[in-house]
From TrEMBL:
Residues 10-148 form the UspA domain. This is Universal stress protein. InterPro entries: Rossmann-like_a/b/a_fold, Universal_stress_UspA, UspA. CDD domains: USP-like.
């Protein structure tokens, strides 16, 4: 038997705090429960970008961005699934540095499934599918599920 045949299914889900990402997390947890899989809830973070060749002033260390992203992820998980222990699956929160699409595609290597919300916190709210979701659908190394936001409040 190969390691792949005996390993627990892994589901990767992108979470950015948006309603559609929370809906994607709920869906991924439900799927993980059905398949006996683990769910990796991933938030991506990056350093502030430059404006017109100038970097924004900051006195914050890179560790601050990592910590803030993890705090935001933990809050989104609690809002989507309820606080505390007793979750129906092994849930593994991950805060990773990089562009969201690249982070999710890297994490999806070897995963059974990649789950994304249809819209994140990006710029064009009228778009059917956000740029990160579109990129993941086109380039993922595994099947991708796009979950439409439920409209349910936090």
């Amino acid at each position: 038997m190969s390691d792949e045949a005996t390993s627990v299914p892994r589901i990767v889900v992108g979470v950015d705090g948006s309603e559609s990402s929370k809906a994607a997390l709920r869906w991924a947890v439900g799927q993980g429960k059905l398949t006996g899989g683990v769910v990796e809830a991933i938030i991506a973070w990056d350093f502030p970008t430059a404006w017109y060749g100038l970097a924004p002033p900051t006195d914050r260390a890179p560790v601050d961005y990592q910590k803030e992203a993890r705090t935001m992820l933990d809050q989104a998980i609690d809002e989507a699934l309820g606080p505390g222990p007793g979750r129906p699956v092994d849930l593994r929160p991950v805060s990773a540095h990089g562009h969201p699409a690249a982070v999710l595609l890297d994490a999806a290597a070897g995963a059974q499934l990649l789950v994304v919300g249809n819209r994140g916190h990006g710029g064009f709210s009228e778009a059917l599918l956000g740029s990160v979701g579109q990129h993941c659908v086109q380039h993922a190394p595994c099947p991708v599920v796009v979950v439409r936001g439920s409209g349910r409040g936090a």
